[in-house]
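Reviewers of the previous submission asked for a worked example of the structure-prediction workflow described in the proposal, so we include one complete record here. The input consisted solely of the amino acid sequence. No template or homolog information was supplied to the procedure at any stage.
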Amino acid sequence: VGVLPHERLAPRRVFVNLSWLCDVSRAAASDDLYDAVDYANVCEAVKIRVQQSSFRLIESLASCIADAVLTFSGVVEVTVTLDKPAAIEGCESVAVEITRRR
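From that input alone, the workflow returned the following C-alpha coordinates.
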Protein backbone atom coordinates (compact mmCIF):
# COMPACT_ATOMS: atom_id res chain seq x y z
CA VAL A 1 0.00 0.00 0.00
CA GLY A 2 1.42 3.30 -1.03
CA VAL A 3 1.50 5.86 -3.80
CA LEU A 4 5.03 7.23 -3.48
CA PRO A 5 7.91 5.36 -5.14
CA HIS A 6 9.67 4.57 -1.84
CA GLU A 7 6.41 3.10 -0.47
CA ARG A 8 6.27 0.64 -3.38
CA LEU A 9 9.69 -0.88 -2.68
CA ALA A 10 8.66 -3.05 0.27
CA PRO A 11 5.43 -4.18 1.91
CA ARG A 12 3.93 -1.60 4.25
CA ARG A 13 2.48 -2.40 7.64
CA VAL A 14 -1.26 -1.85 7.99
CA PHE A 15 -3.65 -2.54 10.85
CA VAL A 16 -7.09 -3.92 10.07
CA ASN A 17 -10.05 -3.60 12.41
CA LEU A 18 -13.25 -5.42 11.47
CA SER A 19 -16.76 -5.18 12.80
CA TRP A 20 -19.58 -7.11 11.20
CA LEU A 21 -23.31 -7.35 11.65
CA CYS A 22 -24.94 -10.76 11.79
CA ASP A 23 -27.65 -12.60 13.66
CA VAL A 24 -25.93 -14.19 16.66
CA SER A 25 -29.04 -15.61 18.31
CA ARG A 26 -28.42 -19.21 17.22
CA ALA A 27 -24.76 -19.14 18.29
CA ALA A 28 -25.65 -17.46 21.57
CA ALA A 29 -28.24 -20.11 22.35
CA SER A 30 -26.09 -23.11 21.35
CA ASP A 31 -22.70 -21.76 22.48
CA ASP A 32 -21.33 -23.64 19.46
CA LEU A 33 -18.74 -22.20 17.08
CA TYR A 34 -20.42 -23.92 14.14
CA ASP A 35 -23.44 -21.65 14.63
CA ALA A 36 -21.31 -18.50 14.58
CA VAL A 37 -19.27 -16.58 12.05
CA ASP A 38 -15.82 -17.95 12.88
CA TYR A 39 -13.64 -14.87 13.18
CA ALA A 40 -10.46 -16.94 12.85
CA ASN A 41 -11.60 -17.97 9.35
CA VAL A 42 -12.59 -14.39 8.51
CA CYS A 43 -9.22 -13.09 9.68
CA GLU A 44 -7.34 -15.71 7.66
CA ALA A 45 -9.26 -14.75 4.51
CA VAL A 46 -8.50 -11.08 5.14
CA LYS A 47 -4.83 -11.81 5.81
CA ILE A 48 -4.54 -13.62 2.48
CA ARG A 49 -6.21 -10.73 0.63
CA VAL A 50 -3.89 -8.20 2.26
CA GLN A 51 -0.74 -10.21 1.57
CA GLN A 52 -1.68 -10.76 -2.08
CA SER A 53 -2.66 -7.16 -2.74
CA SER A 54 -0.68 -4.45 -4.47
CA PHE A 55 -3.08 -1.55 -4.04
CA ARG A 56 -1.79 1.97 -3.96
CA LEU A 57 -4.64 3.37 -1.84
CA ILE A 58 -5.84 2.18 1.56
CA GLU A 59 -9.36 2.91 0.32
CA SER A 60 -8.98 0.24 -2.36
CA LEU A 61 -7.57 -2.30 0.08
CA ALA A 62 -10.36 -1.58 2.59
CA SER A 63 -12.96 -2.19 -0.12
CA CYS A 64 -11.28 -5.49 -1.09
CA ILE A 65 -11.29 -6.57 2.57
CA ALA A 66 -14.98 -5.68 2.93
CA ASP A 67 -15.80 -7.79 -0.13
CA ALA A 68 -13.94 -10.75 1.41
CA VAL A 69 -15.80 -10.51 4.73
CA LEU A 70 -19.18 -10.25 3.02
CA THR A 71 -18.61 -13.66 1.40
CA PHE A 72 -19.06 -15.32 4.80
CA SER A 73 -22.52 -16.73 5.38
CA GLY A 74 -24.49 -14.75 7.90
CA VAL A 75 -22.54 -11.50 7.57
CA VAL A 76 -24.90 -8.80 6.30
CA GLU A 77 -22.77 -5.73 6.96
CA VAL A 78 -19.11 -5.06 7.63
CA THR A 79 -17.14 -2.04 8.76
CA VAL A 80 -13.45 -2.07 7.90
CA THR A 81 -11.00 0.36 9.46
CA LEU A 82 -7.62 0.28 7.80
CA ASP A 83 -4.82 2.09 9.62
CA LYS A 84 -1.48 2.89 7.97
CA PRO A 85 1.09 3.93 10.59
CA ALA A 86 3.73 6.57 9.80
CA ALA A 87 2.12 7.35 6.45
CA ILE A 88 2.63 11.09 6.86
CA GLU A 89 5.49 12.78 8.66
CA GLY A 90 4.31 14.19 11.95
CA CYS A 91 1.29 11.90 12.17
CA GLU A 92 1.17 8.65 14.09
CA SER A 93 -1.01 7.11 11.39
CA VAL A 94 -3.75 7.68 8.86
CA ALA A 95 -6.86 5.56 8.56
CA VAL A 96 -9.91 5.03 6.43
CA GLU A 97 -13.16 3.43 7.56
CA ILE A 98 -15.76 2.02 5.20
CA THR A 99 -19.03 0.18 5.71
CA ARG A 100 -20.53 -2.17 3.16
CA ARG A 101 -23.80 -4.11 3.16
CA ARG A 102 -24.74 -7.30 1.37
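The chain has a mean pLDDT of 90. We consider this example representative of the routine output the project will generate in years two and three.
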